[in-house]
Design goal:
Layout lengths: L1 H17 L19 E4 L7 E7 L9 E6 L6 E2 L5 E4 L7 E11 L4 E11 L4
Antiparallel strand pairs: 1-2, 2-5, 3-4, 3-6, 6-7
Amino acid sequence: MKFFTIGIITVLLLIASCTKKEAEIPYNPGNEYPVAAFDYSGNDGPAPVTIHFHNHSETIHEDSVRYLWQFGENGAESVEKDPVHTFYNTTSNDMNVLVKLTVFDLISDLSQTKSQNIVIAHSK
């Protein structure tokens, strides 16, 4: 019986030492995703002006990303990747409009927002 007990203990020790632990992925603050980035074209005249937004965002999970654009005037929004938006300015001065792009990675549950002021020339 003594050899049987020693044999069982040996087998249990071997099993415990062979158990694979999940490797912990270290946090690396230099690799934050998603990264929100954009530029625009078409702002070349007085209002109304139609501007094309070009999304240059970086994501890990391209098939599970969502975009939210906010155009700063009256709550106008878009969820397109590269939207087109027409801005109006009925004032007698140039108008600053804050455009925001928020990129959501639905798998990691991370997001990032980029904001940029755009000057909309007044109608002459």
